[in-house]
């Protein structure tokens, strides 16, 4: 199985470069060449396997002790993977920034993780990904095995606990795609763990911003004067 260099891949590279330009982040010609290398065939095959079950996999939580990413209390839990183009953008951002220590909060079945890890592999980097729901963690482990990537470590635990007890050094790049209402708490725990100039990509800001108002306030002063935003963050 192979992957063609199609318009979506060109578009995803353009988007990644545009994001980094807005942040004032530079990249070299070699990194841009690396971003144009297709996904590893085994990774691509595994990506297709996840896409095959995306619309049919579901899990009904027994209790409401944790949202597991649900927006409504009794909503059926699904995989909720990012779109392919978004995953490509994540991979390109990792490659262009030459990130070697990547953290993902919210693994699900590992779809975005595979793109992050394939990009990190080009930088001799590693991905740590956090997933609380055991059914999803089991799926992800199987898919990581199938992909033959050996640079992924999955932590099956609460994100708060993993970040509080973090022992894996400073982080270059974070993909935040978990329980939206706790983004603000995660940001507070993340910032001391991150290198200067490190990047956080937060999913669902446009469609579920009402669930993460404290996060949005901290990163760009959405609801209160801009001066109240966290001075350590540039958005």
Explained architecture:
- The structure is a single chain.
- The protein has 235 residues and is of the alpha/beta class.
- It has one domain (7-228): Vaccinia Virus protein VP39 (Rossmann fold, 3-Layer(aba) Sandwich), CATH 3.40.50.150.
- It has helices spanning 7-23, 29-35, 41-53, 84-96, 111-122, 134-147, 159-164, 183-190, 213-220; strands at 101-105, 126-130, 152-155, 171-176, 194-202.
- Helix 6 (134-147) links the parallel strand 2 and strand 3.
- The radius of gyration is 17 Å and the shape is globular.
- The chain starts with 6 loop residues before the first helix and ends in a 15-residue tail after the last helix.
- The mean pLDDT is 91.
- β-strand amount: 5-15%
Structural class determined from secondary elements: alpha/beta
> How many H/I helices?
9
CATH class: Alpha Beta
Overall shape: it is globular
CATH architecture: 3-Layer(aba) Sandwich
- What's the CATH superfamily, by name? Vaccinia Virus protein VP39
Q: Radius of gyration over alpha carbons?
A: 17 Å
**How many domain modules?**
1
Distance between the termini: 38 Å
Arithmetic mean of pLDDT = 91
Give me the count of strands: 5
Q: How would a crystallographer describe the biggest sheet?
A: 5 strands, parallel
Low-confidence stretches: none
Report helical residue fraction: 40-55%
What oligomeric state best describes the polypeptide chains here?
Answer: single chain
The CATH topology corresponds to: Rossmann fold
What order do the SSEs take from the amino end to the carboxyl end, as H and E? HHHHEHEHEHEHEH
Strand order of the largest sheet: 3-2-1-4-5
